[in-house]
Amino acid sequence: GLPAALPALPLELTVLYNSLLFTVGASDSAIKGEAEGIRQGLLRVLEACGACGQDLGTEELWEKVLQEVTMEELQAPLHRLGALQAAWWLAASQLGSVAGLFQLLSTAEDTRRARCTEGQNKLLSMIKAWQVPPEEPSLPLVQSAKDLKEILCTAAAFLQGLQELEAGNFPTALSLLQEAAGGFCSKNILAQIYTCLGCCAQRMGKPQTALQHLKRALQVDFQCLPALSHVAAVYQELGETDAELQALTLLYEALGKSPPAAASSSPYFLMRTELLVHTPVLTSLLRQRHPSEVKYLLAQRCLRDGRVADAVEHYLDFLSLLQEGLQQQVPLDDSSALPRIPEVFLEAASALEQAGRHQDAITVCEEVISRTSDLIPRVLRVEERLEQPESSSPEAELAGGLLSQKKESLCCLAWRAAGYLHQGWAWAKLGESKEAVTQFSRCLSDLLRVQLHGSGVKQTENLQPEVEVLQKIRYLSLLGRGVQFLELGRNKKALLDFQYSLQISPGDPAAASYLVQALWKLNRKQEAAAQWQKLSQSSPGEDGQQQGQGRPLPLYLVSCLEQAVFPDSEPLARSIQDYLGAAAQDTSS
């Protein structure tokens, strides 16, 4: 409450500098908001000089103080306070304000020196050119301005590197992050910087360089587990599955251990780089995966790579985690590696099926079927065109909500139909053809709930992925049921199913081959021979192109597609060739 007095201001500003640093160090959390104490200190300086600045913003206030206050005794305390202000602005990503402040703090000599470093980053050049005021023994500091300057340089380089990385300017980002890596920071921040360097190199298409940076991050601080997560992603990109799985296994084990007590690697500094850099892009790059996400990634990668036994083990571990309330622990947002839970169950069923555990696969699918039954409407209309009102109108919000609800219903329908599909294949493998036919029929009956309106060819683009999945399930069910009808000797019904499956997937070699077999068994040998010749003349490239069209299949359908192949066609081919040969002889005679 005392009036400001010029002789006491150096001490007052030094006490303010120290108290702000103590406050920051004691909170040990990211700096946010304005430094109100600095503003009050500047107003006290103006008050002592007979001026006022209550109506000025912080930047204008600094400009007024540094231009009007010329007392030599106040220059060092003001410069130190300016460095603290720069820290607050860096934490808020106000880089222009920081540059303007150092322009004011710099002497003509400083400015000339900053201009000489042409080609370097402007803000970094200005901070480096700033002359740190000498310390006075009578006014001790809890953190020197020289150390604060080094931290500002590191934070500015790190922050700008992240901004350039987010903007896609990778060479500039790489240069700035390398500058930050050579700066003044703790081990955990250095590991974070190397992790960001690795991500930058990966996006530049340099996976080996990315691995070097990420391994360096782990050498500096093995508790920087996001680096290990990125290592696995790079190995996946390189197609090195063994190394990828090893990295994921190490990550899962590390996440399961209690981290050691975090001893500060920079105990003497109250203001640190980690308190100044906290941007969304950094949060995204350093996102800590939940152990269950890593367990799922292990299961998924093993299943994709054909390591069925390992996939089964990981999926069962994951499902047991589900029973422990996993859904409450992991946010299922866009950044999560986890798909929707029914898809995980279906993938687990696929793994169990491939491992020969057909009864277990049936049980897992039953869980999906029972959980989704109440979520599917009796009839689901899918229009060819969905008129989109103006995006800002209430009608647009309503249409968006209806579309989202329709997508969700289609997803639930696909999951339940896929459950029946897997059960059909599982019963078929167990030799229970009648039960298999029942499950395939339930699958097809479910799919009849979808009514396609319009031309039936071009559906609304917003629903196209879900519709494609349903069409693929319908094709696989028809093919599977047809095969089981053949096993039961019900060849006419089998023929119908194969014809329907070819309508869905024209030219499909498996369906065409089974169609030939059904015709042959029905003693319609001439038709069978004609279809077989047509199939033989079709280019393998055309068939492969037909199969490769559209979006990638969900992982839980891949094993069904692999089963939907025609077995050894040699016996049938020989029979047809013999028939054609005999027919040719009869004609010639």
From TrEMBL:
<dbReference type="InterPro" id="IPR039684">
    <property type="entry name" value="FANCG"/>
</dbReference>
<dbReference type="InterPro" id="IPR019734">
    <property type="entry name" value="TPR_rpt"/>
</dbReference>
<dbReference type="InterPro" id="IPR011990">
    <property type="entry name" value="TPR-like_helical_dom_sf"/>
</dbReference>
<dbReference type="Pfam" id="PF13432">
    <property type="entry name" value="TPR_16"/>
</dbReference>
<dbReference type="GO" id="GO:0043240">
    <property type="term" value="C:Fanconi anaemia nuclear complex"/>
</dbReference>
<protein>
    <submittedName>
        <fullName>FANCG protein</fullName>
    </submittedName>
</protein>
<dbReference type="GO" id="GO:0036297">
    <property type="term" value="P:interstrand cross-link repair"/>
</dbReference>
